[in-house]
Amino acid sequence: MKVNAFAAFEKSGKLEPFSYELSTLGAEEVDIKVHYCGICHSDISMIDDAWGMTQFPIVPGHEIVGEVVATGPSIKNLNVGDKVGLGWFSASCMTCYQCMDGEHHLCASAESTIVGRHGGFANHVRGHWSWAIPLPPDIDLRKAGPLLCGGITVFNPIILAEVKPTDTVGVIGIGGLGHMALMFLKHWGCEVIAFSSNPAKKEEILKMGATKIIDSKSPEDLEGIRGQLDFILNTTNVTLEWSSYLTTLAPKGKFHTVGAVLEPMAIPAFNLIGGQKSVSGSPLGSPALNRTMLDFCVRHDIYPIVEEYPLAKVNYALQHLRDGKARYRIVLEAG
């Protein structure tokens, strides 16, 4: 099968039209016709080779919503015509302990959709059946893509931390990830505190589900909620005054980061020991948890706030995201 795509041929390069041929379909693989694909900051990181693992040319795109057009002979759970989503992961070994335990996203040999293979800024993409997530029939296909990366990234910590509806929780950074976290936690039943330094977002943040907004640059605001939060989710990728946030945790409080902070995080030991607090992090989530999240979204009508562009305007959309102007996720329509 010939695939028409957009690819970067060098570090930080503009995307250009690119065609390639898919090899023979594997026994456990599916080919997906792309209808929509979200743009994630991870796509920019890969284009820029920020993590040192990009292979050029690279076709980015890992928030894919589409339709199965071909299935390998060993596939029993998917049929041609099924609507599916494909996120950051596109394959896992299916034999290791993590896969057998339902934690496919922790598989040591898991394959990414855009690492060493071509992603969804294209008309077709290929993946293993286990990561082609069946979509609920009533889901909004136009807005579902970002749920498969950003959404599951902030949904998984709620499960891992065993967040309760009676908890008071905080979300640091109300952007592409954080705005979805607010919606999830609101419908989880929590009192939600948003940490933001942008006063222009105040009304939007409250509509998303925050019950209170704390100025993340104000020591006085942080001191005002000392010892009150049961759980904090950090979605930013910059170094913060971690000690100040840890003091806002209640005893046994949990601080969880999904933001890829590249510098070492300076965590004062006594801030943890004194209140029996913990710090953790996580990648996305398993195929099963993806399905649970999507069902939760349909039940509560939870979708990311998106801007839509045709795939042909991918470079404009990428620059829009680089400039920090996206509100709050970008979705490309493949046509």
How would you characterize this protein structure?
This protein is α/β, with parallel strands linked by helices and 335 residues long. It has 2 domains: 2-149 and 285-333, Quinone Oxidoreductase, Chain A, domain 1; 151-281, NAD(P)-binding Rossmann-like Domain (Rossmann fold). The protein is 24% helix and 28% strand. It has 11 helices and 17 strands. The strands form 4 sheets. Strands 3, 4, 5, 8, 9, 16 and 17 form a 7-stranded mixed sheet that branches. Helix 6 (202-208) links the parallel strand 11 (191-196) and strand 12. The chain is globular and about 60 Å long. The mean pLDDT is 96.
Brief synopsis:
The chain has 335 residues and is of the alpha/beta class. The protein contains 11 helices and 17 strands. The strands form 4 sheets. Strands 3, 4, 5, 8, 9, 16 and 17 form a 7-stranded mixed sheet that branches.
Please indicate the percent range of residues in DSSP E strands (runs of 2 or more).
25-35%
In the CATH hierarchy, the architecture of the largest domain is Alpha-Beta Complex
Straight-line distance between termini: 18 Å
Low-confidence stretches: none
The major sheet is characterized as: 7 strands, mixed
What oligomeric state best describes the polypeptide chains here?
Answer: single chain
- Form type: globular
Rg computed from alpha carbons, rounded to a whole number of angstroms: 20 Å
Pattern of helices and strands: EEEHEEEHEEEHHEHEHEHEHEHEHEHE
The tally of beta strands, per DSSP, is 17
CATH topology of the largest domain: Quinone Oxidoreductase, Chain A, domain 1
- Please name the fourth-level CATH homologous superfamily of the largest domain: Medium-chain alcohol dehydrogenases, catalytic domain
What is the count of helical runs?
11
Query: Can you give the mean pLDDT?
Result: 96
CATH class category of the largest domain: Alpha Beta
How many structural domains can be distinguished in the coordinates? Answer: 2
Helical proportion, percent range: 10-25%
Class inferred from helices and paired strands: alpha/beta
